[in-house]
């Protein structure tokens, strides 16, 4: 029985000053004689407790312990956090494989104790101004033009000041990866001396973690141009870039909640950049001064920008088919019909595709990252449709550009084909010999087309 200080004082007083027996003290105070025996001679005191050493139940044998540890080792061989052994699953396997007869609660306690014993210790890190930045990609969702879109957002965080940059992209590929670096350098106005990140395939050709032996050609080019070095984290070691790991979650919870509703990635990225600038007023726990004040200290230690920025475009070649389409990564994009059968040059950036013939720009499109999509520019087909007007109501470029209800109004008129072609030419501002350099905004001119058919 545990007693308070008042009872302990009375037990000692009655024994020392009045010389009462243990039986008499117990009777007078109304407590157990065993309690009096424990405390009357001052051998034990109520403010000290012996450390409790839990004992394993008899059913927890060395074989059971080894089995549980093997389950931990098996989990460590893969990185799927949602497919690891729980205490319940381990208990079920012990019953099936070792004939274990103990309770589930016993296994839960043992699993908890073993995990506490195997918790990894981390070394606190400290960085000099300008020494390093950490980068990573996160995943989030936003509404773009009314559609819910899954996006990737790039994060770069300076290790000394904590200042950061975030930019969203439709995908996590080489063009987006390189463009993100350049955008971050422009935002900071300087370049960190070293960049720390994981083994992204967009940067690494061969090797793993600290043993990376070969980087992709274009990444070696951008490193040479901006003069930064790289450090690669080991697999499943997010603690090695904990600053940016925290930033990914912070940006998702703050800059992307509530889910943004925007018209374009440019609008979304302007919103994200505003959050980056606002963070300059933030104070990081454990650091003296604001992020902005520390960034001013760090800025002078960062590397200067080169005189011009690296161009992160990919070059590819394609032959225009008989439908006036070129193919890039399963998606098709239109060019003016006079280039059918010609080989053209594609300049692919993070967000758009430019198409050249003999160094002349003949078309450009917003880049798509799905599969087997066809992207038509109605301007490319108007002259061909004027030569083949009977195809106008079934032409795929027309159907992609004009909704069915508008087409049905034109089709109901005797002169519908001729009228539609005339209005398409007028709406797109085409002269007698159109030269395509601009793709119209999708669905932008419906009001004029409807006015044309009803006027």
TrEMBL record:
CDD domains membership: HTH_XRE
Residues in Integrase catalytic domain copies: 125-312
HTH cro/C1-type domain span: 11-46
InterPro entries given in the database record: Cro/C1-type_HTH, Homeodomain-like_sf, Integrase_cat-core, IstA-like_C, Lambda_DNA-bd_dom_sf, RNaseH-like_sf
Pfam family, one: Mu-transpos_C_2
Stated name of the protein: IS21 family transposase
Gene for this chain: istA
């Amino acid at each position: 029985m545990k007693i308070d200080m008042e009872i302990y004082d009375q037990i000692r007083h009655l024994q020392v000053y009045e010389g009462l027996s243990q039986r008499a003290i117990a009777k007078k105070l109304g407590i157990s004689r065993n309690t009096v025996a424990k405390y009357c001679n001052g051998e034990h005191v109520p403010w000290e407790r012996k450390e409790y050493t839990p004992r394993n139940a008899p059913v927890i044998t060395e074989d059971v312990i080894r089995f549980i540890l093997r389950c931990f080792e098996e989990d460590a061989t893969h990185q799927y956090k949602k497919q690891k052994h729980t205490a319940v699953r381990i208990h079920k396997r012990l019953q099936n494989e070792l004939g274990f007869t103990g309770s589930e609660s016993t296994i839960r306690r043992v699993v908890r104790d073993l995990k506490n014993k195997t918790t990894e210790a981390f070394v606190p890190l400290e960085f000099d101004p300008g020494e390093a930045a950490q980068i990573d990609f996160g995943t989030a969702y936003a509404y773009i033009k009314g559609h819910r879109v899954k996006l990737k957002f790039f994060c770069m965080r300076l290790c000394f000041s904590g200042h950061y940059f975030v930019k969203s992209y439709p995908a996590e590929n080489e063009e987006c990866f390189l463009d993100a670096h350049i955008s971050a350098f422009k935002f900071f106005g300087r370049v960190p001396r070293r960049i720390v990140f994981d083994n992204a395939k967009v940067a690494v050709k061969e090797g793993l973690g600290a043993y990376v032996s070969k980087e992709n050609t274009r990444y070696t080019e951008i490193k040479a141009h901006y003069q930064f070095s790289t450090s690669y984290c080991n697999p499943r070691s997010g603690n090695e870039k904990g600053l940016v790991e925290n930033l990914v979650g912070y940006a998702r919870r703050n800059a992307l909640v509530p889910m943004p509703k925007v018209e374009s990635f440019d609008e979304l990225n302007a919103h994200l950049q505003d959050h980056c600038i606002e963070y300059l007023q933030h104070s990081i726990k454990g650091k003296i001064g604001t992020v902005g004040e520390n960034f001013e200290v760090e800025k002078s230690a960062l590397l200067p920008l080169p005189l011009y920025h690296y161009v992160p475009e990919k070059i590819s070649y394609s032959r225009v088919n008989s439908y006036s389409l070129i193919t890039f990564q399963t998606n098709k994009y239109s060019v003016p019909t006079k280039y059918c059968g010609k080989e053209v040059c594609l300049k692919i950036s993070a967000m758009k595709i430019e198409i050249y013939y003999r160094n002349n720009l003949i078309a450009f499109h917003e880049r798509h990252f799905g599969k087997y999509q066809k992207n038509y520019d109605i301007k490319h087909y108007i002259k061909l449709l004027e030569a083949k007007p009977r195809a106008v109501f079934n032409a795929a470029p027309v159907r992609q550009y004009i909704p069915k209800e508008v087409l049905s109004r034109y089709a109901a008129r005797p002169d519908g084909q001729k009228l539609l072609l005339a209005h398409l030419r007028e709406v797109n501002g085409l002269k007698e010999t159109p030269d395509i350099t601009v793709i119209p905004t999708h669905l932008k001119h419906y009001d004029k087309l409807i006015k044309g058919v009803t006027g």
